[in-house]
Amino acid sequence: MYKEFKQLNLPEIDREIRAFWEKEGIFEKSIAQRAVENSYVFYEGPPSANGMPGIHHVMARTIKDIFCRYHTMKGQRVERKGGWDTHGLPIELSVEKALGITKDDIGKSISVDEYNQKCRETVMMYKDRWDDITRKTGYWVDLDNPYITYENDYIESVWWLLQQLYNKGLLYKGFTIQPYSPAAGTGLSSHELNMPGAYKEISDTSAVAMFKIVGSDNEYFLAWTTTPWTLPSNTAVALGRNITYLKVRTYNRYTGAPIVVILAKDRFSSYFSEQNPDLKPEDLKPGNKPIPYIEIVAELKGAELENTEYEQLLPYVKPDGPAFRALLGDFVSTEDGTGIVHIAPTFGSDDFKVAKQYGIVPLMVKDELGNDMPLVDRHGQFVKEVTDFAGRFVKDYGQVEERPVDVDIVIKLKEENKLFVSEKYVHSYPHCWRTDRPVLYYPLDSWFIKASAKKERMFELNQTINWKPASTGEGRFGKWLENLQDWNLSRSRYWGIPLPIWRNKEGTIEKCIGSVAELQTEVNKANAALGKNQAVPKDLHRPYIDEIVLVADNGEPLYRELDLIDVWFDSGAMPYAQWHYPFENKEGFEFRYPADFIAEGVDQTRGWFYTLHAIAVMVFDSVAFKNVVSNGLVLDKNGQKMSKRLGNAVDPFETVDKYGADATRWYMISNAQVWDNLRFDLAGIEETTRLFFGKLFNTYSFFALYANIDKFRHMEADIPMWQRPEIDRWILSALHSLINEVDADLAQYESTNAARKMMQFVDEQLSNWYIRLCRRRFWKGDYTDDKISAYQTLYECLTTLAKLMAPIAPFFADWLYQNLNKVTRHEPFESVHLALIEPAGDDMIDKGLEERMDYAQRISSLVLSLRKKHKINVRQPLQKVILPVLDEAFTEQLDAVKDLIKSEVNVKEIEYLTDASGLLKKRIKPNFKTLGKRLGPHMKAAQEIINNLSQADINAIEKNKEYILEVGGTSFDLNLEDFEIAAEDIPGWLVANDGPLTVALDITLTPALVAEGMARELVNRIQNIRKNRDFNVTDRIQIDLEKHPAVEEAVAQFGQYISDEVLAVRLDLVAGVEGELLDLPEEVVVKVRVELA
RNA sequence: CUUGGUGUAGCUCAAUUGGUUAGAGCACUGACCUGAUACGUCAGGGGCUGGAAGUUCAAGUCUUUCCAUCAAGACCA
To answer: Is the domain of A236 the same as that of A350?
Structure first.
């Protein structure tokens, strides 16, 4: 027996099927049954179990699951090793938060050892929840043998990769200017800087400082700064090459000294008021108003001032190389300031870059270890060499002081005739999100991967990758590669993969270790040379690894560089490290690299997608993945970002529990293209449930109901196609067309289109046309070939659909498949996921048949629409429909579906009205596609001519199959192809059009038709009475109907028909019946008594 | 600020790649409980395709520009 169900309960189906999968090991079987040689390689991007899974994870995982399942069903072996991303700042921060400590406490109030232990525990905090949602959403991934980035084997593979880079000269140490929080004692990522609220409006003392030009009496560059504390570190000024500058003679407003200052012409009016050749120093007052000037001495381009030398502004520290020159930088603008930018290479990233280009050195002092350091220490205080301000904090770090140090610097400049003007300036400035104190741009030592050296190759190989959508690959990712910067690998944290590089004190000798074995060898060497007793630690993390001292060839001790590596390197290394390559699994690796397919959110473009690609290109000169789907963001239904704070986040657990995984998955895939942002609305899931799963469920229920009655077990030989009725051949043709399309879509990673086509098939063709028209075949008559054909056909539709939809809706599909296949044993598979999606049978596809059925549907719809307009309901039979036909082929097509249309719209006959009748009014239109190219500019005139052709002209064209068009003095020889001719109207009839289709309806009601209509109304009413009284479908009845003129004729002519339909043994017309009231059309009410016979 | 995406009916999305009435579903209005489905069926109303300009015989589709929105990145001297 086929199982019958009262109602569709998707969550219940989930539970049942999930239990089945687990009990029977279906996932494992789906892999084990396929050969490694025929692998479809998938890489799982490791999530961090440090946070709860969100609905967007369900989205990404659905996409991954779809294509893995699809390729499994195409016969490929699809291993899916799970993985966990376990390192990184978010984990450290959550541990710090939990313990109530800051980074400074690590190594003091808590040992690094304990701290890392805590990280290791915390990182898997939500693993159970993740595993739970993974199972509940039906995402098939190997949860039992995941790769875990903190494991030694994983770290060893990463070390190996780093050593490959090192050996290729792609790993180097340098310093860069990075956002740094002195209060927190840590560098900040750009991500942290972009956190909401990081930028705050603050008021700073800005200054325009005067840099005296060497060799001049009193000429100065004017440079504006909002950070006067960087002035002692100044080593250059930058000008714009094409910016025009002025030399202006005036007096210093504070000291009265005569000066000539240089600034951009565009900025002149911001600093100077009127010209006054007789200006005297006394005329000027301190303050920041524009001042008068004596004269403009010269006007010149920035380029002419390049390399002009000037005197050091605040000579606390002498430079260790060339400095104090004018440079040209393309970042200089004249939007504010003076058009001249003060350059302090130690405190600005542009500054650093431009200075480096010109060979200008930064100002540095030596710290107690003899290393270079800038004039501000890591706490944000001036070093002792800056005597006047030694120990002062450069920004507000909570210190108590009379004035900010910026103000004191300005006062000093003022006194020394080095200040042009100063004012308060309000601007937004980044703050550390943890301490709320200002961030400094600060030079930090870092290890870099020289990604820029390989950017052309990365760009090249990227073009071989199939991106979905393409724009992400070409645009977002491609542009990113074009402007690629070196990859800053260093992180000065504790919980992560340690950089495997050891150096001597001076940094002149270094060793990069690529394996545990190599480390062991080096440790042995060091032990021998240094008389130590070290061992390779069991855990490769800090702090153990830090304690290892190696030895150089010359006997010098080497110490580990304390940095950790960027966690993104961890995940980018997963293709190799998940297999502990090259230390293990070397042999099967070729079948598992590169990936055929990966998928993640667009936010991973510069994240995982990049790190995978970068490592693959730099180490293996290969791509890491061939196809990538990057899905859009999941927003709330109003298009807002989901966040816990706003309370608009959708809980995936609740959603899946309530609606089931399949409806959730189907909705997410079908609603919008997966790479577009999704406005997630629960109402959409409900709709999907109702319109798609509901219909399919009903279709199955219908099948089960009658197949059980008829004991259909699919035991009979298949009825040959030629013996099956037209409608069966039609639905099978449509089904096989669907197979072709869905198969092609899924092969091209177009899951949205695939899902939509299946929905359309179920709704428009299977449920609302095939079943509707075939109902009677299932419940009437004996178990004949026709009936068997109907069952076989519907059965094939359902099982095929189950297979096609299985990748997207794995639970429901398996449920459907098993409900059918377990009864029939028609196929040997215990689960749909072990079955194969077979190619469509091309001999099953008959496009002509599909076309004529489409005509039938559209003609029916037109007729119904006409009935509607004239308020004639479908129960009222009409005499005929007239269809204009312009060619033979069309007539043939229609003949085949004539009967369907007649019964569907309840008309007696269909008449073809050919041209010969002379009754047709035709419409002619040019075929733009063929004519446009030929006629070009004449098209408009031609259109005019063609539209105005008379009926006679049209007939002539059809007869001669050609037409000479004279337009613009040229004549064109047109044939039938160049026109679209359609019947438009039949004068005197009710017509409706749909594109080329036209129908006319005869709405004349003869007494016979009225009587038949009434008969049908009576049948309908009596059937209702039967239903209301809960009669059995087989019960016989007897009827007494009130004698009434409205029904007399109907009973007289169609009494037998009525009796047959309602199973009446007797139908009598009698006067004065006591019984139920029947409301009939035309406000007729008659009484009837119905009783069991 | 730069780059990229998006903008079509009240809402969510289509539109065969430049070809002539711009289509569905939901919502809305109306009709119908027709022998699987009222969680259903049928019909109907609803559009200056974000604005402007351009290319073209022809633009929702291509170009430019502006506007809105989202994302990524840069910078804030």
So the answer is: yes
